[in-house]
Inverse folding.
């Protein structure tokens, strides 16, 4: 019987979430540092780094095709004591991850110029963005493997190994990027190329380290050469769970990209790059809320999967609500800090006064929606941990297509509300998805999902 299924629930949830929170915090520092470094270079650099972050998010959503199914199946088998079946899932997942990473890089290389054109990035800015995206994409082959490998380890209840590996990788990322941007000793400063090189080096290292951990074996999971194949019933089960999550991710990202197109067209007076940079700074800083949300969401997914595998749906239900409660307490503190510190935050993150003035008021609006943001993430993770991936897809379709985009367009462009108006649509989307996820989880029908 897994230790996750015994003892005090509150303590168990907290201890599961803590290593992931540490890992996410280090990852957040990478994104924040990249944005800060780009703010020392130019608005074009900030736009490139910001778009690169959105593409990186698309990559993580794409890799959820495998990662979501991996966590759910490993956790379910682990809770039921079916360790050989769990190990089979891991091997199939790593093989799938390698294929997906290579496919994503090939796609990004071709589409990079189109992304720049769609966001009105032309001339020197467009060239900077395309070069950045194509260099950045090299690392996705390795990011896919580290993402899926970490998902497998977490499904077995091992939260510490991914924290140590990916945490180290993030530290390397910050150190290399900063050294290359500003120069260090004999290393000359190379500007924005330094940011992306640091990212690629870190992702390469992360993929190799995760493969090394699994090759040696960790927590009962081990890579076996003959099991590294992309066929069979196990692969079909992984994809049956993961495909709805992948479609959800594609819908969400596509909606966000159209949303970026709205942002790029908010200013008709030549200040579009300033508006876009203000948006990117705000979104990067708001990623602070994603740290506890992803951490407690991962804890909920693992606990729920193992509880259902052990035939204890009542503990699964209580575990999901406990994760959301603990994370909401942190979100309240973050909301207060964002609202009170909006101006100092923008003054720290960018040297351009125009970017600062554009971003402060919308950021204060965003501060009011951090608790709903947490619910929309934690409860969706919880549902995915049970293998219930279809309903989150419905939530995302509704929130993105019927709230975020039309409201952002009307309030931001038609009513000339600028960035503040566009972010009304974004906040409305978050609130709607939070309510839907809470209701779906509370009804408990996901406890009967067969995977």
């Amino acid at each position: 019987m897994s230790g996750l299924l015994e003892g005090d629930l509150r303590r168990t949830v907290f201890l599961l979430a803590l290593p992931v929170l540490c890992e996410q915090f280090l990852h957040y520092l990478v994104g924040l540092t990249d944005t800060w470094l780009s703010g020392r270079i130019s608005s074009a650099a900030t736009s490139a780094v910001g778009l690169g972050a959105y593409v990186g998010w698309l990559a993580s959503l794409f890799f959820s095709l495998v990662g979501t199914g991996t966590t759910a199946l490993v956790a379910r088998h682990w809770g039921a004591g079916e360790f050989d079946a769990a190990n089979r899932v891991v091997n199939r997942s790593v093989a799938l991850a390698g294929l997906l990473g290579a496919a994503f890089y090939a796609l990004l290389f071709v589409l990079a110029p189109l992304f720049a054109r769609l966001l009105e990035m032309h001339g020197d800015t467009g060239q900077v963005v395309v070069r950045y995206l194509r260099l950045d994409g090299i690392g996705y082959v390795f990011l896919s493997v580290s993402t899926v490998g970490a998902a497998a380890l977490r499904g077995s209840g091992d939260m510490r190994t991914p924290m140590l590996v990916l945490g180290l990788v993030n530290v390397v990322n910050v150190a290399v990027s900063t050294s290359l941007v500003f120069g260090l000793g004999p290393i000359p400063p190379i500007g924005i190329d330094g940011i992306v090189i640091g990212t690629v080096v870190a992702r390469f290292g992360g993929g190799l380290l995760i493969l090394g951990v699994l090759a040696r074996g960790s927590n009962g999971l081990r890579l076996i050469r003959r099991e590294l194949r992309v066929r069979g019933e196990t692969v079909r089960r992984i994809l049956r769970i993961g495909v709805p999550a992948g479609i959800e991710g594609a819908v969400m990202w596509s909606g966000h990209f159209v949303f970026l197109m709205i942002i790029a067209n908010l200013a008709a007076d030549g200040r579009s790059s300033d508006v876009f940079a203000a948006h990117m700074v705000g979104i990067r800083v708001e990623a602070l809320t994603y740290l506890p949300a992803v951490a407690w969401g991962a804890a909920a997914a693992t606990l729920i999967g193992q509880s259902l595998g052990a035939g204890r749906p009542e503990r699964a239900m209580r575990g999901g609500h406990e994760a959301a409660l603990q994370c909401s307490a942190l979100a309240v503190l973050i909301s207060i800090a964002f609202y009170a510190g909006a101006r100092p935050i923008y003054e720290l993150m960018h040297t351009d006064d125009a970017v600062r003035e554009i971003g402060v008021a919308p950021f204060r609006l965003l501060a009011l929606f951090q608790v709903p943001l947490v619910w929309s993430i934690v409860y969706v993770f919880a549902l995915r941990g049970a293998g219930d991936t279809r309903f989150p897809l419905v939530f995302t379709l509704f929130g993105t297509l019927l709230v975020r985009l039309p409201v952002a367009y009307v309030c931001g462009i038609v009513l000339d509300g600028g960035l503040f108006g566009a972010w009304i649509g974004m906040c409305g989307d978050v609130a709607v998805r939070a309510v839907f996820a809470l209701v779906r989880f509370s009804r408990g029908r996901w406890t009967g999902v067969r995977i």
In short: The two ends are 21 Å apart (CA to CA). The CA atoms of residues 167 and 390 lie 32 Å apart. The chain has 15 helices and no strands.
